[in-house]
Structures are given as C-alpha cells and as structure tokens.
Amino acid sequence: MQRNWIGRSEGAEVEFRIQNSELKIGVFTTRPDTLFGATYMVLAPEHKLVEQITTPEQRPAVEAYRATVATKSDLERTELAKEKTGVFAGAYALNPVNGQRIPIWIADYVLISYGTGAIMAVPGHDTRDLEFAAKFDLPIVQVVQPPDPTTDWRGFVGEGTAVNSAGPRFRSTVCRRRRPSARSRSGWRGRAWAGRW
Question: Alpha-carbon distance 100 to 197, whole Å?
C-alpha cells in the first residue's frame, strides 16, 4: 500500500459557528462520520479569523505564539515526532451536530496551505489530535469502535462501528436536508506530511 502520495481526497466541508458571533469556521474533513467526536478546533496561526476571535485576555499569548511559529518552516511545524504546541484563543465554536461548545486553539500543526487552515479536532480518532488533547487536558470522546474489541479506541483511525454518534440534529445538519452546515468537497494533497486525512 502506498502511504506517501499526492492526490485527491474526498470529504466534506463543515461549518462551525463561533459562539456569540455570526462568524463561522469552515473545515475540510475526510471523516464527517466523526463529527460527534470533535471536542476542540484548531486554527493555523496565519488564519484570517485569529485576529477577530482572540479575546483581549488571550491576545498577548496568541501574538507571542504566532511570532514563534513564524520562524518555522512547514516541515518543522508538521514533524510528527515534535512536541505539540499551541495556545487557546479564548473563543468557542459550536459543534454543528450536537451544539456543544468547543474551545478554539491556535497550533502550528495546522497549516494555512492545506484545506481551510482550520480543523475540527477529533482526538479519539486522530493521532496528532490525541497527543495535543493529552498535553492540554482536552476532552477525548470515542465515536468509532474498532472491529477488534481488544484494540484501544484512543487514536484509532480505521473503519469501525459508529458509537456515541446519535442526535436529532445529525441527519439534517450533516446531510444538508434542513441546514446548510456541510457540503461535499474534494481536496488535493500536496505532500503526505502536510495535512490531515
């Protein structure tokens, strides 16, 4: 199986509304089935919304972090073995499938050049998100049960059975039957290390 390839990825673009605001954050995901597991969001430090959503209390920390990240290359920022770094923006988004308030972080492992420059973080089923959540004590929710019950679900990225993923708003939100919060989209991978899939 080829692991490092350049190509097209199929998925959905989902919008998360920022709490107490009309602003929205769009994220591209190849795993819309894990929306119920999104417990925080991450913006690339260069994202255009960082200035708008950062609270006055968090502004000094966010500005210092952005200055530090500006000295790093994309390769350095996405190195899998490096320690995860980030800073809380002080703002929250609302998960479109369950309405839960989730914190918005700024972190260097998200690149402005891939996707939308923002991610919905699903630490239960993404290795980098899991490492980040563990470091910053963020919630981790299981939404995929591995086929082998002896496999640890934390960080599990394969196919499995959906769990903890029901709610009255799920079908209408994700499938656009009543709410335009998600739409089908294709994206292109430039480098295997440069993005999320």
Answer: 24
**Bridge partners for 101 per DSSP:** 94
Residue linked to tokens 């320690």: 83
152, containing H or E segment: none
**pLDDT, tens digit, 9 for 90 and up, residues 81-131:** 788 999 999 999 999 999 999 999 999 999 998 889 999 999 999 999 999
* Exposure on the CB side of residue 109, measured as CA atoms within 13 A: 24
Give mean pLDDT, residues 36-49.
97
Q: Which residues pair with 14 in a beta bridge?
A: 27, 182
119's enclosing H/E stretch is strand 118-121
pTM of the model: 0.81
pLDDT tens track for 124-158: 999 999 999 999 999 999 999 999 989 999 988 88
User: 6 — phi, psi (to 5°)?
Assistant: -105, 130
Side chain identity at residue 177, one-letter code: R
Nearest to 44 by CA among 119, 94, 96: 119
Handedness of CA 121, 126, 131, 133 (dihedral sign): positive
CA separation for the pair 143, 164 (Å, rounded): 5
